[in-house]
Amino acid sequence: MTIKKTVPLYLVIFLGLLTAITPLATDLYLPALPIMPSELQTTTSLIQMTIGIMTFGIAFGQLLGGPLSDKFGRKIPLIIGNLLCVIASIACAYAPSIEILLIARFFQGFTGSMGVVIAKAIARDYASGQELVRLMSLLMLVNGLAPVIAPLIGGQLLLFSTWRFIFVILSIFSALLFIGSLLFTESLPPEKRLQGTLASAFSSYSILLKDKSFMGQTLVQLFAFAAFFAYITGSSFVYQNIFHLSPQEFSYMFGINSCGLILASFITSKISSFVKVKTILHFSLWQLTIGSTLFLLAMIFDWSFIATSLILFFTVCTVSLFGSSGFSMAMAKYGHLAGTTSAILGFSGMFSAGFVAPLVGIGGENTGVPMGIVMVACAALALICYYIFIANND
């Protein structure tokens, strides 16, 4: 069995776009972050928190969306989530203050998370094992286009408009996903859904939380994604305030780094048939840790723009590796709880990212040292969790 025979190309693209709401909702307006504090009369840390609060919303929204999709199927929660995300994005566009923007961003993440968690559950409906690694890699390949294109579009939009119009674009994207969810053919037939009451669907969390191996994978994803989101949150300030790039130039660099994510996704899809999933995960965590350490040194000792950019390129691409391999390993024996399993894994990464955002900006606008410290600490913790919970398990 191959993915090409199992999953139509249009469905792979649709699932990839569903998971792209996270990078789009963050990366599209990254070039505007340095200019937003003065317009909203607030601090840099609070502006960066607009990223963190959205990830909190995605985290908690997945905890709701996962069990609901296991109980009622994938289609209905997907339709409702995308429709509400359109409304939340419009609220962001017209937010009159930082407080309203933070609230609207939370609900944008909360509603948009339905697509994120359900897309991964749908992938599990179609594949498992190495086939799931390949499918997840292809989804991340589609997903990876978002952080390449988004900052480029965002930077260009700032030439003739404000950051508010960026959220109008996000509302249009959510509307397209809403239309796609209406056309989507249900992948979880009634006979395969969780039986019993709605409360029993949420009780399945206890089964997963008692599994030591699964919780190990969850902790790895939690800390590894936290390191990645430290880059997402702080990169615009590093490139624009330390290396003095314009918003448009930053968008080009961010896009180049994101190309590494696409390349890593392509490589993973090719090697997963003959390289063990655990080996891919192990390698990616070491690469993340070493790259984060080198970036911290670059910030402390004022290394050149080229050296720093190369380090970030090879560090950022690891998200495709540990994301697809870790997800496949964690989902191995829980196909019947795909939505709930995806929810916990998604929650762990996004919840940690919410804490990371304000920590990255704690040193002010002109230093990348806090960003480097957070990346090193989180990457090291992910690697430690791997050795404690996963390394000795077959």
Keywords:
single chain; 394 residues; mainly alpha; disordered N terminus
Overview of the molecule:
With about 400 residues, the protein is mainly α. It has 17 helices and no strands. The longest helix is centred in the middle third of the chain and has 31 residues, at about 210-240.
Largest sheet entry: none
Q: How helical, in percent, are the residues? A: over 70%
The tally of strands reads: 0
SS content category: mainly alpha
Sum up the overall morphology in one term.
globular
Question: What oligomerization state is this entry in?
Answer: single chain
From N to C, what is the helix and strand string?
HHHHHHHHHHHHHHHHH
Span from first to last CA? Answer: 24 Å
- Which runs of at least 5 residues are low in confidence (pLDDT < 50)? 1-5
| Share in β-strands | under 5%
Q: Any idea what the radius of gyration is?
A: 20 Å
| Helical stretch tally | 17
Q: What's the pLDDT, averaged over the residues?
A: 85
Précis, in short:
Helix content is 80%, strand content 0%. The protein contains 17 helices and no strands.
How do the helices and strands line up, and which of them pair or pack?
Layout: H1 3-6, H2 9-19, H3 21-27, H4 36-40, H5 44-72, H6 75-93, H7 98-126, H8 129-157, H9 163-183, H10 198-209, H11 212-242, H12 247-271, H13 277-300, H14 305-316, H15 318-331, H16 338-360, H17 369-390
